[in-house]
Amino acid sequence: MPNDLKKRPPKVYHKTKWGKIVLGDALQFLPSIPDASINLVMTSPPFGLVRKKDYGNVDATDYLEWFRPFGKEIFRVLGESGSFVLDIGGAWNAGFPTRSLYHYELVIMLCKEIGFHLAQEFFWWNPSKLPTPAEWVTVRRVRVKDAVNCVWWLSKTPFPKASNRRVLTPYSASMKQLLRFGYKAKLRPSGHDISEKFSIDNGAAIPPNLIALANTESNSSYLRYCEEHQIKPHPARFPSDLPEFFVRMLTEENDFVIDPFAGSCVTGEVCEALHRRFVCCELVEDYLQGAVHRFDQKRTGERRPVPEYSINHPAALWNGIPKDTLPIDGGKKRAKKQAIMKLI
């Protein structure tokens, strides 16, 4: 990221009924926020990647040093009962089919050094993710596709305000059957004591910490606006359902939410719809040109269609003894093209 952008003083770029968009470096903007005044920090910073992206990511090896001052400021501005939700993807080590530990080292640093508590870890599964990294997944076939982001839910206290009643999900078919035909209370072999309360119909289920959201937005209003006005869209947007989940679960109406790495201001759009005060801070003005469109039209309140996803059983395609053999070198050398085509 060019240093001249970081030196530019932050300024209000756009105002809405419930919040504002700030153009500038979050490290310059956050000191203007009073101590313990924010209810939720919901953000997805540039990930620590080996290969550079347009939105200014940092090398995975330097990530902790880069993020440390942001973490300290976020801890300062966060209220005692507030939460800090951090969506962050993993990275592969350059030239190897092994994973960087930077995003795990980051959450350890935020807890051990800065003082956050890890309230819970979530995993955002993107069913539409392409099979990457191609070299290890589709060429040498020694890894499966990387389709999960870690979402760290952090807090200043072990007891941040929260309610899972805000994010309940429909019962599964098996649970509906259990409620219909009943369940015998008993102690399971695992040691879990399943009481009669388990068979009470509460109308909905408590969701797991695996969030299934396909990040597909091929014909959204935002993308159409960017195309019509020849604006470059932000290349790493998360779906609005992701911040909405945490905004609903962790905040009340009129609470204050900040996204210090706002990109195209998806978090702000969610807060506007849910009547939360917000500030979105973004360093690159090009991304904000398209972001303002998110606030041009009033939301009708109509819900988008909610697709259903299923996770296949690991043995779904098991058909006996495989014909191929495992590479002795673990895929270190590429197989010859003819051999690859034979195995596909």
Rg of Cα set: 23 Å
- Can you count the helices? 11
If you consult CATH, what is the topology of the largest domain?
Answer: Rossmann fold
Strand % is 15-25%
Got a strand count? Answer: 11
In the CATH hierarchy, what is the class of the largest domain? Alpha Beta
**CATH superfamily label of the largest domain:** Vaccinia Virus protein VP39
**Element string (H = helix, E = strand):** HEEHEHEHEHEHEEEHHEHEHH
What distance separates the N and C termini? 41 Å
Structural class: alpha/beta
Q: Specify the biggest β-sheet.
A: 9 strands, mixed
The tally of structural domains comes to 2
Mean pLDDT: 84
Question: Can you tell me about this structure?
Answer:
- It is a single chain.
- Helices cover 27% and strands 18% of the residues.
- With 344 residues, it is an alpha/beta fold.
- The chain folds into two domains: 3-169 and 207-297 and 314-343, Rossmann fold; 172-205, no CATH class.
- The strands form two sheets. It has a nine-stranded mixed β-sheet with strand order 1-2-11-10-3-4-6-5-9. The chain has a two-stranded antiparallel sheet with strand order 7-8.
- The model has no long low-confidence stretch (mean pLDDT 84).
